Amino acid sequence: MDIASSILNDIISDVIKHKSPSFKPHSPFPRRLMSDVIPEHYCIHKIIHSERKHIISQVKSVNQRENGSCGYYGLYSALHAIHIVHAEEDHHCKDYLSHMHERVGFWKHYHKVTKTLKEHAKTQGDANYPWTEDHIEKGILERPYINFLLNNTHLLRRIWEDSLSEDHIFETSGDLPITPLPDFAFNSLRNNRLSVMIVQRMSVVFGNFQSQASYFHIFIVGLTCHWLLIVCNKVDGKLEVVMIDSRNHNLMGSEEEFKKIAEEAIKEQEQASSGINAEYGEI
Questions:
Q1: What CA–CA distance (Å, rounded) separates 190 from 203?
Q2: The 238-244 sheet, strands edge to edge
Q3: 102 has a pLDDT exceeding 80
Q4: Which residue from 27, 86, 91, 120 could staple onto 171, CB 3.0 to 4.6 Å apart?
Q5: Which of 17-44 are b and which e, b meaning 16 or more Cβ less than 10 Å from the residue's Cβ?
Q6: How do residues 195-228 score in pLDDT, each as one tens digit?
Q7: Does 13 have pLDDT greater than 90?
Q8: E strand or H helix at 43, and its extent?
Q9: pLDDT at 165 exceeding the cut of 70
Q10: How many CB atoms lie within 10 A of CB 105?
Q11: What secondary structure letter does DSSP report for 41?
Q12: How many CB atoms lie within 10 A of CB 162?
């Protein structure tokens, strides 16, 4: 059997072994578009296709400082986006939007999440990277960390409710509508690093967007050494895609912005190779 046939057999075996996943739906369905409640001064860029009923925009995040904690910023923004579109009370949307942009709120969330990860690390015995307190304290949201949190959503719900006032309960139930996609850098896609399970999950999500009038899902996308948030939200047939970047670069803007992103990525990789911030191996 040649190499190509062997690889093909492996793929077919994976597809047969891993049936299309069925996820407990988050409830209720989204009640509003983010673009209907987010003021213009929070928008970095917006494109409206009135005929197609599509809106593409980029919304400001709490601005990330010079460290590698972009994954934690993304998770923080993701939880707020979930609540902005699902909140039963309109006045709660304003609370969530305000809290989403509070630096103190972010750091409170960050310390609660890392504390939760450290508590789990203690149960791992003599575990190595990344389940050690030293690695967690470096501030990088490693793949195993985000997978652990999304597989234990009760912990994220507890962190959320501890961070806000008592009348702000977690607005959804079931699995969180979040999918991490850590291998979306060009080289990763070129080398087909997406797993069969990720492809299957995305197929389910996109199928729901096509078949349902209202649906919501968030992708936390890994681009070499940076996490980017893409919020997909459909309400009564109207679709919006909202991008959130913790460094607030205008991703829909000029070529100069992309040069800045590339320069920062190169700088971070050079620091990592020289031992200054060597934790940049998260994605």
A1: 20
A2: 43-49, 54-59, 238-244, 227-235, 215-222, 178-181
A3: yes
A4: 86
A5: eeeeeeeeebeebbbbbbbebbeeebeb
A6: 778 888 888 888 999 899 999 999 998 876 788 8
A7: no
A8: strand 43-49
A9: no
A10: 17
A11: G
A12: 10
